Amino acid sequence: MNFKQVEAFRAVMLSGSMTAAAASLHTSQPNISRLIAQLERQSGFKLFERVGGRLQPTDEGAALFADVERAFIGLHSIEQAAQNIRQGGTGRLRIAVVPSLSLTVAVGATLSPRQPRCGGIDSYRRLADGGALGRLAVLRHRPGVVCGR
Predict the structure, then answer these.
(1) Chain segment 39-79, per-residue pLDDT in tens
(2) What ranges make up the beta strands (E) of the chain?
(3) 136 beta partners
(4) How far apart are CA 86 and CA 83, in angstroms?
(5) Closest by alpha carbon to 8, among 34, 44, 43, 41?
């Protein structure tokens, strides 16, 4: 089992046809059919049945698809992590402060003109309850950079 076979299987499951899967993966329909046949041989069970000219996943195919989707969600998470690292951040720091300090000390420390590489604010919002915590800033952290005054 290889990535191209699994990717082809996922595309067929999402699109419902070999032709649409081929178009979405920028390849030919015979190539998708070949990859699905290889995956069926290696897994030892049929993934699809033809019903009225349409592809229907078998029970085994549907069960495999659930695991494939989890793997692709994990892959998306890895892509997101790589993007965050590329942008210079490896994590988030959430700071909650009382309203009187929210615009001065907490946010001012992260936006200090003396330390322009300190990070940045991903989001800044007033807490819905308007309670004692007041505001919440979600900050990016850049490794090796000390924020503050």
Answers:
(1) 999 999 999 998 888 899 999 999 999 999 888 888 888 88
(2) 48-51, 54-57, 91-97, 119-126, 135-141
(3) 96, 125
(4) 5
(5) 34
